[in-house]
Design brief:
The protein is 32% helix and 23% strand. With 458 residues, it is α/β, with parallel strands linked by helices. Strand 15 and strand 16 form a beta hairpin. The structure holds flavin-adenine dinucleotide (FAD).
Length: 458
């Protein structure tokens, strides 16, 4: 049996951040990772002259904890091209630029005059009385059905690959929910936002990556740990609590698939919710059951390269989204080489296309070649191409159980899990199913777990 102060299970961004922060405070850590690489969903590929992200592509520069982490690791942040702030919507057979400022919702062609009138009535809609509501239910009541179908639904597809009818409003848009609670309306909440200090420069929000792609971040975190602190291909199978020793300290025993046992006073589970559920089945059956109720959406990503002249569009933006009512399995695409021109060979463009999600999970049953054909057909429709579109490059990835769905009851579910954890000193959770799926939220989550351990022993 091997012993260590803190065991971290899972070497995604959440787990690696926790390990890094603990190591900085001279705590001995061991990260056990099931896969043969670190990074979890963060995976940058270099192939055929193209560079593409299998998982996340960008993060906003306003994500303070992640920006600080990059700075500490001496990584070179790389901002996307200025045009990245522009996003397109494929609606009624056309690609249309989306409003970039809230007031532009009143001039955008993606909403009918009636929908704009309905939007203006938002401050006069009665306050919702429920403790929880679906994103679609709440926002249809506040801003009308067309705004939900044309703007909210594709936005949700782009982030959660999810379903607006089952995602929970207070979990997905906590600020908008709270504004309604506090001021009776979203517009009133917007008006009451704390004013920025006019003497301070206004921070400019840019979408960022790091030079070399996001995998540089997780590799740098791993390299900042001492050599034996990460074990790859070590899927953890079970966790047990062992009674107090002579000093009254409880600890945990962690069993690996090959029978090896590790003992530690602290354990951070930085694995997906359904894995945490299995690991905690014996120790915390109620929390395990709540964890198991967090569903995940599955999707596929087709990274397709084309000669620039094959695509009759300036690709002057982040990419496009498709509302569900268009009845296409394609959720949208990121114009990766428009964000970072060096990611495609000279004269070529790279489109990362997302397909499937909560509405169309069957996509994962299709082979890569079928998915590539489906996406290519959808792109022909989106770009109004008559002839066939033959990619110069293609790489399709299947992503089962990719994105946790903050469905109705999520806030209460997480509160229940966290309350149950209080009874198990030294046991902590980190990950994207808790308080945010974005990369900055994962950094925050890893840091909070590390801080809780440091606080216990200070
Ligand atoms: C396709 C896609 C695109 C995305 N795009 C963006 C984006 O552009 N911007 C953004 O901010 N966010 C984006 N996200 C979300 C973001 O990437 C994730 O929320 C984040 O990377 C999750 O990190 P994590 O460490 O919490 O979990 P994970 O990355 O899932 O890490 C968990 C780790 O645990 C390991 N593990 C599992 N079981 C075991 C076991 N039994 N024993 C040991 N180890 C185990 C796994 O192998 C994995 O390495 C995207 C996600 C996906 C899937």
């Amino acid at each position: 049996m091997q012993t260590v102060d803190t065991l971290i299970i899972g070497a995604g961004l959440s787990g690696l951040t926790a390990a890094y922060r603990l190591h900085q405070q001279n705590r001995s850590v061991m990260v056990l990772e099931a896969a043969d690489r670190v990074g979890g969903w963060i995976q940058t590929h270099h192939e055929g002259g193209y560079t593409f992200e299998g998982g996340p592509n960008t993060f906003p520069s306003t994500g303070q904890e992640l920006m600080d982490l990059c700075r500490e690791l001496q990584l070179e942040p790389q901002a996307t091209q200025a045009s990245a702030s522009k996003r397109y919507l494929y609606l009624n057979g056309n690609l249309t630029a989306l409003p970039q400022k809230p007031w532009q919702a009143l001039t955008t062609p993606v909403l009918s005059p009636l929908a704009k009138l309905r939007l203006l009535k938002e401050p006069f809609q009665p306050k919702c009385q429920a403790d929880d509501m679906s994103v679609a239910g709440f926002l249809t009541h506040r801003v009308g059905r067309e705004v939900v179908e044309n703007l909210v639904d594709p936005f949700i597809s782009g982030i959660y690959a999810g379903n607006v009818n089952t995602l929970s409003m207070p979990a997905v848009f906590p600020k908008l929910w709270q504004w309604e609670q506090d001021y009776g309306s979203i517009f009133q909440g917007l008006r009451h936002r704390p004013k920025k200090d006019p003497t301070q420069p206004k921070p400019k929000m840019q979408l960022m990556s790091v030079t070399g792609g996001l995998q540089t971040l997780t590799h740098s975190l791993a390299q900042a740990l001492p050599a034996p602190a990460i074990r790859l291909q070590c899927p953890v199978q079970a966790i047990e609590k062992i009674g107090a020793d002579k000093t009254g300290t409880t600890s945990y025993q962690v069993r690996l698939n090959d029978g090896e046992i590790w003992q530690a006073q602290n354990v951070i589970l930085a694995v997906p919710a359904f894995v945490a559920a299995t690991l905690l089945d014996n120790l915390m059956p109620d929390a395990a059951s709540l964890l198991r109720h967090i569903p995940y959406s599955s999707l596929a990503v087709a990274h397709l390269g084309f000669r620039a002249e094959q695509i009759p569009h300036a690709l002057d933006g982040f990419g496009f989204l498709i509302p569900r009512k268009e009845n296409m399995p394609l959720l949208g695409a990121i114009w990766a080489s428009s964000l970072f021109p060096e990611r495609a060979p000279q004269g070529h463009v790279l489109l990362s296309n997302f397909i499937g999600g909560a509405h169309y999970p069957e996509i994962l049953k299709q082979k890569a070649s079928q998915i590539q054909r489906q996406v290519t057909r959808d792109l022909q429709t989106v770009f109004h191409l008559n002839g066939s579109l033959e990619p110069a490059f293609g790489h399709v990835q299947h992503h089962p159980n990719a994105i946790p769905q903050y469905n109705l009851g999520h806030v209460q579910r997480i509160a229940g899990i966290e309350a149950a954890l209080q009874k198990h000193k030294g046991l902590h959770l980190a990950g994207n199913y808790l308080h945010g799926i974005a990369l900055n939220a994962c950094v925050q989550s890893g840091q909070s777990a590390a801080q809780a351990i440091l606080n216990q022993s200070s």
